[in-house]
Design a protein that fits this description.
With 312 residues, this protein is an alpha/beta fold. 35% of the residues lie in helices and 18% in strands. Helix 4 packs parallel to helix 5. The chain is globular and about 60 Å long. The protein binds adenosine-5'-triphosphate and magnesium ion.
Length: 312
């Protein structure tokens, strides 16, 4: 069975008569590359993207997807053109959090990304039925990532954020290997059990020479309605400690706010519904700091360039 057929079989969404856009499966894919192939991908789809930033953690459930989406919106509010790629092939969240529609197929095998409030968005969930598991082996998931990088018409963007899955596995390595990442934002919760996994992500990015732009501590504390006191449910200052360890700034401490989960489930994220809340203000602060950090790491020529990782 060829690669194209395998992807088609795995995604195989049941399309209705009215649907005009194709599934990922319907889009011709480049020839399969073996894991050992270190050839540069076609970067045509990325050639007007100034900066790619991964949002990762290593740890699951700490808020990577929530941070990616709200940060994308906050960067846009700073006047930037922003895209968001959901690289979580097995547990995609961005479609649910935005209800973004299935992308269209353009001429020349390119996919037009979906649009959410001006953010260009792509997620594998846009190509499959709700609740359908992505039964893909690692190399095929990595191939979907390659397609997202090389066959999505991202157009002109200041920032393309990449919402990473948990762990430090195939997808993270594929991305770090083939995408010219200009930095990574780390997300953690304060407790040590989270920091243990996030340190593995730090080590991965450092090994791959991807600069760490900063650490977001999510679910830092809870402010009780009646006493207005900060309750540090998951210990205190883990994010600050991690930031010091990796020599990067602490970008913000975001409180636990039940409206964050409600907003995500409504398909209208916190930064859209409550931009002036404490959480909303934290995202504005993160965006400002990320812009400053990314400029600092980018260097003086302002050009991203393309690099090919060399394994040590
Ligand atoms: N600050 C917060 N306050 C309250 N709920 C939050 C906060 N941040 C995230 N959440 C909620 O926590 C849950 C997990 O968040 P999210 O899906 O963004 O994590 P993740 O790290 O992307 O998870 P995964 O590893 O599965 O991809 C979601 O229900 C989200 O709405
Ligand atoms: Mg996620």
């Amino acid at each position: 069975m060829n690669f194209f057929k395998k992807v088609q079989d795995k995604f195989s969404p049941k399309r209705t008569e009215t649907e005009v856009a194709p599934s990922v499966a319907a889009i011709p894919v480049p020839p399969v590359e073996t894991a050992s192939s270190a050839e540069a991908p076609k970067v045509g789809a990325l050639d007007r993207v100034k900066s790619l930033i991964a949002v990762g953690s290593g740890k699951g459930g700490v808020g990577k997807s929530t941070v990616s989406l709200n940060l994308a919106l906050a960067l846009q509010q700073q006047g930037k053109k922003v895209g968001l790629m959901d690289a979580d092939i097995y547990g995609p969240s961005q479609q649910h959090m935005t209800r973004a529609v299935r992308p269209k197929l353009l001429d020349g095998d390119l996919i037009e990304p979906s649009d959410y409030e001006g953010i260009k968005l792509i997620s594998v969930a846009m190509f499959s039925n709700s609740g359908q598991a992505q039964l893909l082996r690692g190399p095929m998931a990595a191939q979907v990532i390659r397609q997202f990088l090389s066959q999505v018409a991202w157009g002109e963007l200041d920032y393309l954020l990449i919402d990473l899955p948990p762990g430090t596995g195939d997808i993270q390595l594929t991305l770090a290997q083939i995408a010219p990442l200009s930095g990574a934002v780390l997300v953690t919760t304060p407790q040590e059990i989270s920091l243990i996994d996030v340190r593995k992500a730090v080590s991965m990015f450092q090994t791959l020479n991807v600069p760490i732009l900063g650490v977001v501590e999510n679910m830092s504390y809870f402010i009780c309605d009646s006493c207005e006191k900060k309750h540090y449910i998951f210990q205190q200052s883990g994010g600050k400690k991690l930031a010091a360890e990796c020599g990067a700034p602490l970008l913000a401490e975001i409180p636990i706010d039940p409206r964050v989960a409600e907003a995500s489930d409504d398909g209208r994220p916190m930064f859209v519904q409550h931009p002036s809340s404490t959480v909303g203000q934290a995202y504005t602060q993160i965006a400002e700091k990320v812009l400053a950090q990314e400029q600092m790491h980018r260097g003086s020529d302002g050009a991203l360039g393309y690099f090919l990782l060399e394994w040590k």
